Amino acid sequence: MRVVVQRVSEASVKIDGVIKGAIHQGMMVLLGIEHDDSEEDIDWLVAKLSGLRIFSDAEGKMNVSIREIKGSFLVVSQFTLHASTRKGNRPSYVRAARPELAIPMYELFIERLKKSSGLEVQTGEFGADMKVALINDGPVTILIDSKTRE
């Protein structure tokens, strides 16, 4: 499971011109699910995101978690995070999970993120053509992969 996390002052996702999810201060989470991801990957990643200290303390240092600022999450499915560009110029997505696996994993990730963090979690819609807008605060952008946690 792979995510790109962006610290944002605001973010939103639109589908067919209608806002599906929107947040103010918090994390934009682009979530890529791989075919061999498990619930263990979800639990590890949820804990990592909930405790990640990327928000500024009183001295301006990144030392505060999203829980401490009572921020929000905006989670958007992003299968292209598992693109392979080794051969040619057209990315291959063979490592990305098929929808029959990815959709339940995406929904479980959201459910566990809500429960674990106790914070608001807004979402996009799996498989939809989404327009994402955000103001990256910092900018702060971090890549986290559950397969490289050890």
From TrEMBL:
InterPro entries, per the entry: Daa-tRNA_deacyls_DTD, DTD-like_sf
UniProt-annotated location(s): Cytoplasm
EC numbers, comma separated: 3.1.1.96, 3.1.1.-
CDD domains found in the cross-reference section: Dtyr_deacylase (cd00563)
Motif (Gly-cisPro motif, important for rejection of L-amino acids) on chain: 138-139
A Pfam family per the record: Tyr_Deacylase
Protein origin, superkingdom: Bacteria
Reaction(s) catalysed (UniProt annotation): glycyl-tRNA(Ala) + H2O = tRNA(Ala) + glycine + H(+); a D-aminoacyl-tRNA + H2O = a tRNA + a D-alpha-amino acid + H(+)
Gene3D superfamilies associated with the record: D-tyrosyl-tRNA(Tyr) deacylase (3.50.80.10)
Primary site of residence: cytoplasm
SUPFAM superfamilies, alphabetized: DTD-like
Top-rank EC class of the record's enzyme: hydrolase
Keywords: Cytoplasm, Hydrolase, RNA-binding, tRNA-binding
Domain remarks in the Swiss-Prot or TrEMBL record: A Gly-cisPro motif from one monomer fits into the active site of the other monomer to allow specific chiral rejection of L-amino acids.
Assembly notes: Homodimer.
Family note: Belongs to the DTD family.
Functional note: An aminoacyl-tRNA editing enzyme that deacylates mischarged D-aminoacyl-tRNAs. Also deacylates mischarged glycyl-tRNA(Ala), protecting cells against glycine mischarging by AlaRS. Acts via tRNA-based rather than protein-based catalysis; rejects L-amino acids rather than detecting D-amino acids in the active site. By recycling D-aminoacyl-tRNA to D-amino acids and free tRNA molecules, this enzyme counteracts the toxicity associated with the formation of D-aminoacyl-tRNA entities in vivo and helps enforce protein L-homochirality.
Name of the protein: D-aminoacyl-tRNA deacylase
Organism in which the protein naturally occurs: Wandonia haliotis
Gene: dtd
